[in-house]
Design a protein that fits this description.
By secondary structure, this protein is α+β, with helices and mostly antiparallel strands. It is built from 16 helices and 38 strands. 46% of the residues are buried. It binds guanosine-5'-triphosphate (GTP) and magnesium ion. Guanosine-5'-triphosphate is lined by residues 16, 18-24, 41-43, 60-61, 82-84, 134-135, 137-138, 256-258.
Length: 717
């Protein structure tokens, strides 16, 4: 393969709902680009893009596959991710290295939830969009409906380049209003001809709209347009390119990916209007804050957007050359870890087809093997070039469960396997929770975690199971309480003696230091001598006051008392959960001239705290999440009533681009398997996100239940 210059390269991502035909379109592009000689089919499990075992088994994509095609002396690098929200990691990674999102829309269904999710990502990434109306050969295909939907959701920039002449089972022709030509694939043979007389008016009208849209994005073109009332084809293309970069135009083209109708023309269009990597605003070096120009003459840098473990190859890394050139045998530094590495071999990849290349230039995408410790999101650069690119913005996990090895002896193997899976997919979060004594695994949905399970079963051969995850409850108090505790041990050996008097109360931000407490009619005068404030590792605070007067407890014992309190905070008295947001004032106590020591005061502090805690109106707190749900209007009622059963507090509702958006606060305990439930209520037409908000007290009846469960568990142990 030849080495392509930056301006011969076009990078894009295929986007769209699952089943819209991205992988089928990719296959047709590889065929048109002469990477393959025969087109495979998803049904026949022989496409280049869905080549992994799990994809072949499922009949749909899981991984974002990196592909390329050569056409018109240009190299198209494109990435084919899954359309399922569960594998959104692939989309996030792909968008970090490509300049355009190609939204593939199934002409039968119009805009679907996956299209919606992907367009939101595209918008957030500030990348241009193209619409490919696919499956026009389907019985129920409706181009007009797609345009109507798309205009409603994506706005007036949706601009027709091609429209079909005979959508439905007989589909084989469309009009291209940029070229003013008819494309006909009757009998599988392409024939290009003049626009037929009965289509002239419509074609002229759409061409005029296209010209106006193309001119709108560029002042120079605008002038020409006002001057001459029109643009040439090349001027139109220039306007489209500028429009794509600024998101000022969303061109629409027509294909049947399955029949390979329109795909060649689509690729030609892409090669002529898509910006090259040096045409778009350059990414920023997070160290210097300066933009890094995609320039082949600059010092080399590359961004790793995908790491994977491939059979027979081991670890492979996919990267984009951000500046300079990456050549075979080159020494590089991983600017994240500081490790030196060497590029042993370089490849241009189309799925599992790999072609060795000697060099990749700024803007190009490729693969290398045998890097020592490179991972997704890291920057490799020529020694001395300290550039670091921003990490990929992966979404927060929203489906959580606990996992354990069926045989305890496999626990370590399981952990290693999960670490490897995390390397390939950073949206799988695995964490052993000391607090819950469970390994918590979270991801984007049930399907996502089922794929993890599939790998454990089939690749790693580890029997593991998902179990109900525990909730990280917290405990706190709601009123002031006082306790004295005397720890005394005088039988046999050295004695122990320590007595502690303390007041505990709920802590709130900004409260003044205590001067006096009145508890059950009794007054306690407080004169603060020392104040210590701790942020607990699990959130919330502990404030510790020493207000001992007259030396009733030596200052040297104060840390031991604090230690005792901390121990008890780690294991709240109600359910054994962490305690938080408590203020403790130690105001009196007693010592013994011989028997007092640290351990005595630690125990006295701990027990006094426990006693006081019990009388301080203890409450269990639970994590609350901010949840956003987008639903089609017709399912709004069902989704709302389901949320109500989950103790949700609805904060607001609004319409957004054809979806109703519900924002609510929902306890984590009620979000178990929400993605599955939402999907079944809406037939997979809704989406949601969730983010930790705060801890809040659980309702009384639930607190009683939780305490009972804890007591029963304690008894069992
Ligand atoms: N009739 C017809 N079927 C198509 C066309 N394009 C794709 N299909 C079929 O639609 C189904 C889904 O196609 P895929 O290419 O796997 O869709 P995808 O967008 O990659 O789906 P995910 O990988 O799940 O996101 C397959 O059965 C394809 O054969 C088309 O143009 N016409
Ligand atoms: Mg696919």
């Amino acid at each position: 393969m030849k080495v392509y210059n930056t301006n011969q390269i076009k990078n894009f991502t295929l986007l769209g709902n699952t089943g819209s035909g991205k992988t089928t379109l990719a296959e047709a592009m590889l065929f048109e680009g002469k990477v393959i000689e025969r087109r495979g089919e998803v049904e026949n499990k022989n496409t280049v893009s869905d080549y992994s075992d799990i994809e072949r088994e499922n009949g749909s994509s899981v991984y974002a596959t990196v592909l390329y095609a050569e056409i018109n002396d240009k190299k198209l690098n494109f990435i084919d991710p899954s359309g399922s929200d569960d594998f959104i990691n692939g989309v996030a990674a792909a968008l970090s290295v490509t300049d355009i999102g190609v939204l593939v829309i199934n002409a039968q269904n119009g805009i679907e939830v996956g299209t919606e999710i992907h367009s939101r990502y595209l918008e957030k990434a500030k990348k241009g969009a193209v619409i490919v109306v696919n499956q026009l050969d389907h019985e129920k295909a409706s181009f007009d409906k797609v345009i109507e939907d798309a205009t409603e959701r994506l706005g007036k920039n949706v601009t027709i380049i091609q429209y079909p002449l005979n959508e439905g089972t007989s589909f084989d022709s469309f009009i291209d209003v940029l070229l003013m030509k008819k494309y006909c694939y009757a009998g599988g043979k392409l024939e290009i001809s003049e626009v037929p007389a009965d289509q002239k008016d419509r074609a002229e009208e759409l061409r005029a709209e296209l010209i106006e849209k193309a001119a709108e994005n560029d002042e120079g073109l605008m002038e020409i347009f006002f001057d001459k009332g029109s643009l040439t084809e090349d001027e139109m293309r220039r306007g489209i390119t500028v429009g794509l970069i600024q998101r000022g135009i969303i061109p629409v083209v027509c294909v049947s990916a399955k029949k390979n109708y329109g795909v060649g023309r689509m690729m030609e269009f892409f090669t002529r209007v898509f910006p090259s990597p040096n045409d778009v605003p350059p990414p920023v070096d997070t160290v210097s804050g300066n933009p890094v120009k995609c320039d082949a003459a600059s010092p080399a840098s590359a961004f790793i957007f995908k790491s994977a473990i491939e059979q027979h190859l081991g670890e492979v890394n996919y990267f984009k050359v951000m500046s300079g050139e990456i050549t075979e045998g080159m020494d590089v530094v991983n600017n994240k870890t500081g490790n030196k590495d060497r590029i042993s071999q370089l490849f241009a990849v189309a799925g599992k087809n790999r072609t060795k290349v000697p060099k990749l230039t700024a803007g190009d995408i490729g693969q290398t093997v045998k890097l020592k410790s490179a991972r997704t999101g890291q920057t490799l650069a020529a020694p001395g070039n300290n550039v670091v690119f921003a990490k990929i913005d992966f979404p927060e996990p929203k489906f959580r469960t606990a996992i354990k090895a069926v045989n305890e002896s496999d626990e370590e193997k399981l952990n290693e396997a999960l670490q490897r899976l995390y390397m390939e997919d950073p949206t799988i979060c695995v964490e052993y929770s000391k607090e819950l004594k469970q390994t918590i695994i979270s991801g984007q949905g049930e399907y996502h975690l089922n794929i993890v399970k599939w790998h454990l079963d089939n690749i790693f051969k580890i029997a593991a199971e998902y179990i109900t995850p525990k909730i990280p409850y917290r405990e706190t108090i709601t009123r002031i309480a006082q306790a004295d505790y005397r720890h005394k041990k005088q039988s046999g050996g050295a004695g122990q003696f320590g007595e502690v008097h303390m007041v505990i109360e709920p802590y709130a931000e900004g409260m003044p230091d205590p001067a006096m407490y009145k508890i059950n009619g009794k007054e306690f005068k407080i004169s603060v001598r020392d104040k210590e404030e701790y942020d607990m590792p699990w959130g919330g605070k502990l404030v510790y006051y020493n207000s001992i007067v007259g030396g009733s407890i030596d200052a040297r014992f104060m840390p031991a008392i604090l230690k005792g309190i901390m121990e008890k905070m780690e294991e709240g008295p109600l359910t054994g959960s962490y305690a938080r947001d408590i203020r403790v004032t130690v105001y009196d106590g007693k010592m013994h001239p011989v028997d007092s020591n640290e351990i005595s005061f630690r125990l006295a502090g701990r027990n006094a705290f426990r006693e006081a805690f019990k009388n301080a109106g203890p409450k269990i707190m639970e994590p609350i999440y901010n949840v956003e749900v987008w639903v089609p209007a017709d399912r709004m009622g069902d989704v709302m009533s389901d949320l109500q059963t989950r103790r949700a507090v609805v904060q607001g509702m609004s319409s957004e681009k054809g979806f109703e958006k519900i924002t609510a606060r929902v306890p984590l305990a009620e979000m178990n398997r929400y993605s599955t439930a939402l999907s079944s209520i809406t037939g997979g037409r809704a989406m949601y996100s969730m983010k930790f908000a705060e801890y809040a007290q659980v309702p009384g009846d639930i607190q009683t239940k939780l305490i009972e469960v804890f007591a029963a568990e304690e008894k069992d142990e």
